[in-house]
């Protein structure tokens, strides 16, 4: 019969092929896996873009390394540091008053200015706020500055005070009325104090950055007039004076700070050494007629004879260079600026026909105060900025960001390029 039901097949029920359904599901899953794999794998365009960005970053790093000295980030630093600061048409901030007294000395201490007078010692910020004031009164104050500390003393006086930006760190008082000849701080804030001592011709005492006494040197045969701790903080170099065969000699004696015996000596003949410092990690002696360069261990490596006979001004505070102001005559305006590197070679020279009132350096910059202007130079003596309306200024203090403290007889302002 046509309407006879088939055995095992209920009436009205659809027949489903389970094997075919399973196969279809597997195909769908494989297709989804392939799609996900393709989406996870970067396209050729994305890979090329990533490679391009890597190449740009590498090239940028190479260019920054090669042209680091020519790249100047200081303008950005100044923009951020002095946001909201008002400047007059000449580039100066609003001046603030200070009590100069009859004698004064100024130096940059971190981001601030330290001013020592015969009345007090004060630390100012760039807006003229007094951050710290100490009752340190010296008739003829002298300031020396390290990486983050400054020492104020008086030649022949018995009192020395060390400051950081927050206040006093060390008060040193020599006993029995003995006097201080000189003091110096290196970039690591190691302090060397040269002074008188009973039954000796001078002594040097060295303090570490925590102002702990770590070394002393007594001289019984030659007068000691100055000393400096090398930038690696391993040696002390002291200037002693004497004569050999009727010739005046500045003999530099070198001591390791971890030993008592003398380590080395070197001489600067026929000239007096005016100052000892460091340029590029090398010990530098500024003499009357030349610059002498030695290793920290006392091995003389170079000498730069002055291009003109008279040294007018100098600074060892630049980053990797010394700057000299030389004159053709004892008086007059005919001269030149010279920058010298740690190899004793002239980096640049610039002829001048202007009277120099003050010279100061910091970072990569040099500030020269002339009678009618202040000019900031790079270490290659190219002009970086010039400020006019500075006729009443008497001193300047260069800052490492390219700005300059300008100091008159009773006011202080900050010149910002």
* Percent in strands: over 45%
Secondary-structure class:
mainly beta
- Radius of gyration (CA) equals 35 Å
Helical fraction equals 10-25%
Major sheet size, sense and barrel closure: 4 strands, antiparallel
Describe the structure.
With 417 residues, this protein is mainly beta. It contains 3 helices and 32 strands. The strands form 8 sheets. The chain has a 4-stranded antiparallel sheet, with no helix packed on it. A 4-stranded antiparallel sheet has the order 2-3-4-5, with no helix packed on it. Strand 31 and strand 32 (411-415) form a beta hairpin. The longest helix is centred in the N-terminal third of the chain and has 23 residues, at 18-40. It is globular, with a radius of gyration of 35 Å.
